[in-house]
UniProtKB/TrEMBL annotation:
It comes from Terriglobus roseus. Residues 1-91 form the CoA-binding domain. This is CoA-binding domain-containing protein. Transmembrane segments: none annotated. It holds the Pfam family CoA_binding_2.
């Protein structure tokens, strides 16, 4: 599994799924790169306004945004040469997934990265 995870839409509110899922992944040894222009830092990490501003290429881009935001994220991933997109449980955009896959991006959609990690590490 990935070592570095960019989390698009990571909230600094601990009651939000993006926050507690990312905190869990961080505790599991993953490096979290927050992507949220509305906050300066989350989980002790600097937050970036976009994927393009990240200081390193993440292994996975984990998305906590509405389905309508996913196409722009996919476009940015294609431009940056990023190879893995994870869209959290309850979020789907089939057109964006097809575009990502056509560009060679591995796509996981409508699944929780925390739940999957727990199942694989039992």
């Amino acid at each position: 599994m990935a070592k570095t995870i960019a989390v698009v839409g990571l909230s600094d509110d601990p009651t939000k799924a993006s926050h507690f899922v990312s905190a869990y992944m961080q505790r599991a040894g993953k490096k979290i790169l927050p992507v949220n222009p509305a906050v300066t830092s989350v989980l002790g990490e600097t937050s970036y306004a976009s994927l393009s501003e990240l200081p390193e290429k993440p292994d996975v881009v984990n998305v906590f945004r509405l389905p309508r935001a996913i196409p722009a994220i996919v476009d940015e991933m294609i431009t940056l040469g990023l190879k893995a997109l994870w869209v959290q449980q309850g979020i789907r955009n089939e057109e964006a997934a097809r575009k990502a896959e056509a560009a060679g991006i591995h796509v996981v959609m409508d699944r929780c990265i925390m739940v999957e990690h727990r199942m694989r590490t039992r």
